[in-house]
Structures are given as structure tokens and as C-alpha cells.
Specification:
alpha/beta, Nucleotidyltransferase, domain 5, five-stranded mixed beta sheet
């Protein structure tokens, strides 16, 4: 029996949709939303009907009958902490992302859209590997400052998908392996997968800088800068996320541009780019200590994992820990589809969202 899975991934200015038949991609499409469309709404949740109509119109043009679907799967929004894997979309989840989200974010729209389409089609709807996945043991939550406990927030969807995919390629179970996965994109996070759970991580604000994020910076100097009177809160937030990292040093967030600068002899660009690789390697080494160095594989994924220059620098520093596997790309649509497929095949069981 084959399954048809419809995938929804909502971003700030686009709605990505896709149709998969088992593991085969039938199509993926990114529906762009103009600034004019987005700016009509004061809150993210108000965009729901607009985005839903975009999707329905596209499906109608493609002559796709939603009654043929087996399920609909969506990107998880800003819920209270959940486990990894699949959750059925229920009324409590919808109330949380629509009316009481942990943070206002475009991902909150995915579950309500999926639920609406699935209800019309008469099929189940799920989220998979929410960004709010939290499987930390108590010891991992201690930060050194009781006011600020460590929380789990990272690129769960892609890192877990690549870990599962790698384990399967080796004829092993994901639950039986210890894997460090570094997601290298606009933001960088590094996850430690052990016995089927993400037991620790280096998030995008406590580890390496990235194309647009500052990562971990010296705390005392950060406090001094915050109280210097030179910058307001919003500007400081942008210095950390949006205007940090490569953008702050080299005025670009495009790693390809940086490599072009290096190839043209720019030594400063090389220093900064190699420093990013250096910090990524440090983050990987940091997580290896949690499992006493017993790591089955280190996976480098995300868009910048296409960079042979960057990945070679990282490999040179961490290969003593374990084999390094390069699995480039974002892979979010595939990750959502494959997760739902495992549920439909009975390989995984979907949880019920509770608070």
C-alpha cells in the first residue's frame, strides 16, 4: 500500500508545500507572499486564511484532489516543550499556537492550515519534530545562573532526520546510536542524539557564530555594551541575531561570497571564515564530552555543509572523535514527509499533545 502525504512548512514570507508518495517527491513548491500581502495583518495568526487560500488555489490549479491524501503533516510551531517525533494536531495544540503561542512566529500557522485541509479531506494531521522539542536530562538544564536555565531550542527537524537517515543507511537503528549533528545554515546549532533522544545541544546563541548570528560572546562585555547607552534593546537583539556573525565582519551572509573573497586573496575573510569552522569544531568537541567521547558518527548538514572549504576545516579538527559524514541541505520537507510516513506504516506512534 502506498501513502500520499501533503507537507506544509510556513516561513515568514513563504509557505512551502509538497506532495510525497511514500519516499518519492511528487512536487515541492514555495508560495511567496509579498510584503504587501504580509503587511495587511497586524499579527501572524491573522494570515491564516490568506495562506490557506493560496494553498487551495495552487492545488486547484494542479488538479490535486485532497481526498486522495493519506495525511497532512506540518512544521511544529511555538508550543510548550514536547518530545521528538509526531504529534496529532488537536484542539489544544491549535489553541496554543493560535491564541497562546510561546513566541509569535510564522511556524505557528502550519498546524492550523494542516488541520483545516486534513479535516476537509477526512484524513489525520500531524506535526513532526517541533522546534520546541525538549528531551534534556536535569543536569543539562543547569546554566550557572538560576534565573536563566538552559532550554532546548535547535534545528531539530533536519538534524534528527539526517541522524535517522544515516543510521538506516548503515542497517542500524537510530535509537542504538550516538550521533552528533551540526546544522550549518543562517543559524548554526549542534545536537547530541543518544539512544533516540536529543540529550544536549549547542544552540545558536551559546555556540559558534554563523552567517547572521553572533553566537556565544563574552558576557561581561555584552552587559557593558547593553548599558553603554549607545544602542536600544531592538538594536542589541539584531546585533545577536540578524546582524551578527559573517554579516558583522564581512557584510554578507552568503558563504559563497566569502569563499570568493578568500579565493581572491582576502586574508581577513579567510580568518573569519576559518574562525567559524573553528568554533563549530569546538561545539562538536564540547558535546562529545557528554558521552565520554563515545560517538558513532559526526554529521555536518544544512546549506553551508555544501562548502568543501568549511567542512574540510571542521573535519580536520574533529576526525579524532569519530568519522565525519557530510549530508548537505536543509531537507525539512523530506524530513516532515518521512516522519509522517513512519507513522502511517506503524514504525512510529503519534503522541497526543497535552500541557
Amino acid at each position: 500500500m502506498s501513502y500520499k502525504i501533503f507537507v506544509i512548512n510556513t516561513g515568514s514570507t513563504s509557505t512551502k508545500i509538497g506532495l510525497y508518495e511514500d519516499e518519492r517527491e511528487v512536487f515541492t513548491k514555495s508560495l511567496s507572499h509579498s510584503d504587501e500581502d504580509i503587511n495587511k495583518f497586524t499579527e501572524v495568526k491573522d494570515q491564516l486564511n490568506m495562506r490557506l487560500e493560496f494553498i487551495r488555489s495552487y492545488l486547484e490549479d494542479m488538479k490535486i484532489d485532497i481526498k486522495d491524501l493519506s495525511c497532512v503533516v506540518a512544521r511544529g510551531g511555538m508550543l510548550l516543550p514536547v518530545k521528538s517525533g509526531a504529534y496529532e494536531i488537536n484542539e489544544l495544540m491549535l489553541d496554543r499556537v493560535e491564541n497562546r503561542p510561546v513566541m509569535e512566529h510564522a511556524s505557528n500557522l502550519a498546524a492550523p492550515i494542516a488541520y483545516g485541509i486534513a479535516r476537509e479531506a477526512g484524513v489525520p494531521s500531524y506535526i513532526y519534530d517541533s522546534v520546541m522539542t525538549d528531551e534534556f536530562p536535569d543536569i543539562a538544564r543547569i546554566s550557572g545562573m538560576p534565573d536563566i536555565p538552559r532550554t532546548s531550542s535547535s534545528h531539530v527537524l533536519n538534524t534528527r532526520a539526517m541522524a535517522i537517515k544515516y543510521a538506516k543507511s548503515k542497517g542500524k537503528k537510530y535509537q542504538d546510536m550516538t550521533i552528533i549533528v551540526a546544522h550549518l545554515g543562517g543559524g548554526i546549532s549542534i545536537n547530541l542524539h543518544h539512544e533516540g533522544q536529543i540529550i544536549d545541544l549547542v544552540s545558536d546563541d551559546e555556540g559558534p557564530f554563523s552567517p547572521e548570528r553572533a553566537g556565544r560572546v563574552p558576557c561581561r562585555e555584552l552587559i557593558n555594551l547593553c548599558y553603554s547607552g549607545k544602542f536600544d534593546k531592538k538594536t542589541m537583539q539584531r546585533k545577536l541575531r540578524g546582524n551578527g556573525g559573517l554579516k558583522a565582519y564581512l557584510n554578507t551572509i552568503d558563504a559563497r561570497e566569502v569563499e570568493k573573497m578568500i579565493n581572491q586573496g582576502d586574508e581577513y575573510a579567510k580568518l573569519i571564515y576559518e574562525a567559524m569552522a573553528y568554533q563549530i569544531a569546538k561545539g562538536i568537541g564540547e558535546l562529545a564530552t557528554v558521552v565520554e567521547g563515545k560517538v558513532d558518527v559526526i554529521i555536518l548538514t544544512g546549506g553551508i555543509a555544501h562548502s568543501r572549504m568549511l567542512t574540510s576545516w571542521i573535519k580536520k579538527r574533529v576526525s579524532f572523535i569519530s568519522h565525519v559524514e557530510i549530508m548537505p541541505g536543509e531537507n525539512e520537507m523530506e524530513a516532515l514527509a518521512y516522519g509522517a510516513l513512519r507513522v502511517l506504516r506503524g514504525e512510529e506512534k503519534a503522541r497526543q499533545y497535552t500541557e
